[in-house]
Amino acid sequence: MSAAKSPREVRPSVLNPLFASVTGLPGVGPKLGKLYDRLVAEPGREARLRDLIFHLPYQLVDRHASPYLASAKIGEIVTVPVIVEDHQPPARRGRGPYRVLCADDRGGDVMLVFFHAREEQLTKMLPIGQRRWISGKLEQWEGRLQMVHPDRMMDERAFAQMPSIEPVYPATDGLPSRAIARAARAALERVPDLEEWIEPTVLAREKFPAFSAALKALHQPNSLAALEPLAPARRRLAYDELLASQLALIMVRSRLREEAGGRALVGDGKIAARIRDALPYSLTSSQQQALQEINADLAQPKRMMRLLQGDVGSGKTIVGLLAMATAVEAGRQAAMMAPTEILARQHFERIAPLAETAGLKVALLTGRDRAAARAKTRAALAAGEIDIVVGTHALFQEDVEFRDLGLAVVDEQHRFGVHQRLLLGRKGEAVDVLVMTATPIPRTLVLTFFGDIELSVLKEKPAGRQPIDTRAVDLERLGDVVEAVGRAIRSGAQVYWVCPLVAESEELDVAAAEERFETLKQHFGDDVALLHGQMRASEKDEAMGRFSRGEAKILVATTVIEVGVDVPNASVMVIEHAERFGLAQLHQLRGRVGRGAARSTCLLLYKGPLGETAKSRLAIMRETDDGFRIAEEDLRLRGEGDLLGHRQSGMPGFRLARPDVDSDLLQMARDDAKLILARDAELSSARGSALRTLLYLFERDEAVQLMRAG
Ligand code: ADP
Ligand code: MG
Asked: Which residue has its alpha carbon closest to ligand 1 atom 5?
């Protein structure tokens, strides 16, 4: 029986405030709402308060004031009182930065620097002769102190109201940490009192605070210690998440065991053979083996749930396509889902010609399709006229129906969990699922986190790949780098130029990419394209399209290109401020080159002086290209220094629990979940009802539905 036909249990109303949209918070309109969707929600979902409160700060900025400039530390965020002395607009409009000279009581001075400045605004905020408090990163440039885009410029009153310790959140283009902090504060006030779901003995033993107190401790930390991985508040939330997932896992598994199994998908290999014949290369033995494993699973009359793990560039996409070919040979449809528009489009562009050579009908379905086009695709899917559909999460939407979906391939999954798997399963009868990921999760962890999942690993990269020549270069040698880039594009190469996002220094992120775009344009004119998250979707497509067609030679981008983009002709990767990136991120970024036959180069531009950890990171990047090794070193280097880490969990489907530090909690949650369900399989006791709230809170309620359906 399908779950949809049985009476649906509804979410406990006490959770309603947490499931309200973030756009209900003061100051969060529809435009910011969209950015929150991308930053904190699962792909394709609208961001709700629960998503926001699980988006935790990873660092603190100390804005305690220094009395004067000489007592402030260069290279750090400082807060100092100054007198505004002089405004120096750029000599020619639109060229160069706007500068404001300020001095302190002790004869020290500092230059405030603004790119793309609005003069009126600055003269209003910084009137000459007035005293202001400025807060931001203090730098030294050509022998004098400067602050580029101060985070704060305050009069006495504003300064008095500023909290001197400020949480720093993972942020994104257009949605700075500060705005997130404000929204999170408002969201915390709406967190209801929930019945405790953890046993009193466990609470006492682990020194866990209550759920709402734990949230408060993390969002309004009073010291760095509050954000440490072992801080009780963080552990409590991680345990909650793990307990919810373990309960759901056990419930789903016992349910699936009862259900009639899946359907056998047996192909004759003809379509796959035609696709393979059309490939300009032959499959690696890893790829062949993975395919054998997948096809063997598909042929079984039970549901496949398989993870295909392979480092960036190992060639997962073609494996996914050939698996889909088997499903089509067996007379059914297949879907491939990507986490972003850009990726979905790219997959489609690569897959369609190959599949069409083999006589298949392929379609693209994303959230951005026009209504008419979407209706047409939907109708064709429902009628079975489309064999393979590539898309974003839009594929999950209620109104999308398949005639007979046999296989769903989920690419580069980050946050997809059991939840999505069940949603996918509902799109058809006994849908097999293949998840592709570049995250190097050890097998044992995969098994404990996901239970019944099978694993295929692409161990080798396609032959003929040359190692990427990786170098660390001081940003002071920017001129040389620009020259080298010029030589590279004259020889026919294409170049990625990545600028980082800086959560602490809010206006700088996009400004930095735009600024770099402008300077490179002065050298290379129309050969340069720009891509960042604040651009309109159509502008992004245009930029990405020009680059992948080879019309643009240089793509200046923020980290939006991090995941999955594939332009084989691109052979140079420049990463500006490489010292600000984590190892995993650097590896992902570098993986964008080294895909074609040409020898590739990765230039890690850093700003000195480098700390020990940053130095080690860059050294490891130069030493190895092995994703697993890099992931290990990453864990080792993170140690105590890094707190929650920029990318929080690293475990797909989980946002609070971390595989590296929470293995004891995972074990605990597993044992507890087993015990709980052994005693109260229907969760009908008082504690059972609190646990049910927990399942809803962490969106593992599909499990509750399944239980009801039985
Ligand atoms: P990822 O595993 O990172 O998703 P892709 O599937 O994007 O990697 O593949 C990276 C590149 O390698 C693509 O340009 C693809 O065409 C190419 N490729 C895949 N398999 C092979 C192979 N066996 N031999 C040569 N090139 C391959
Ligand atoms: Mg990929």
From this structure: 315
- Gap between the Cα atoms of 541 and 538, Å rounded: 5
Q: Which residues of 113-152 are buried (b: 16+ CB within 10 A; e: fewer)?
A: bbbebeeeebeeebeeeeebbbbbbbbeeeeebbbbbbbb
* Separation CA 395–CA 184 (nearest Å): 31
Tell me the CA end-to-end span of the chain in Å, nearest whole number: 8
Same domain, 698 and 604: no
Which of ligand 1's atoms lies nearest the C-alpha of 312? 3
Q: Which of 162, 188, 207 is the last residue before a domain boundary?
A: 162
Mean pLDDT by 10 residues, the chain (710 residues): 50 95 94 87 84 91 89 89 94 78 92 85 94 92 88 92 86 81 95 96 96 96 88 96 89 65 86 96 96 94 85 91 97 90 88 95 90 93 97 82 91 56 61 82 66 82 85 94 96 92 54 84 94 80 90 88 73 91 83 84 91 87 86 62 41 75 88 93 92 92 59
Please report whether residue 569 resides in a domain: yes
Q: What pLDDT, in 10s, does the model give residues 273-314?
A: 999 999 999 999 999 999 999 999 999 888 788 889 888 888
Distance CA 232, CA 208 (A): 5
Query: Cβ(548) to ligand 1 under 6 A?
Result: no
Q: Residue 99 belongs to what domain range? A: 64-162
Whether 353 lines ligand 1, by a CB cut-off of 6 Å, is no
Which residues touch 370 (CB under 8 Å, ≥6 apart)? Answer: none
Are 9 and 689 in contact, with CB atoms under 8 Å apart?
no
Report the CATH number at residue 520. Answer: 3.40.50.300
CA 9 to chain centre: 32
The secondary structure of 608-674 as a DSSP string is SSPPHHHHHHHHHHHH---HHHHHHHHHHHHTTTTTT-SS---STT-SS--TTT-HHHHHHHHHHHH
Number of domains in the chain: 4
Express each pLDDT in 499-534 by its tens digit.
Answer: 876 555 545 556 678 888 989 999 999 999 998 877
Distance 595 CA to ligand 1 centre (A): 7
Tell me which residue has its CA closest to atom 17 in ligand 1.
315
CATH number at residue 111: 2.40.50.140
Rounded Cα distance between 91 and 225, Å, is 48
Task: Determine contact, residues 112/99, Cβ cutoff 8 Å.
Answer: yes
Output the CA 276–ligand 1 centroid distance in Å: 13
The pTM of the full predicted model, rounded to 2 decimals, is 0.69
Going by alpha carbons, the residue nearest to atom 4 of ligand 1 is 316
Ion ligand 2 nearby residues (CB, 5 A) = 564
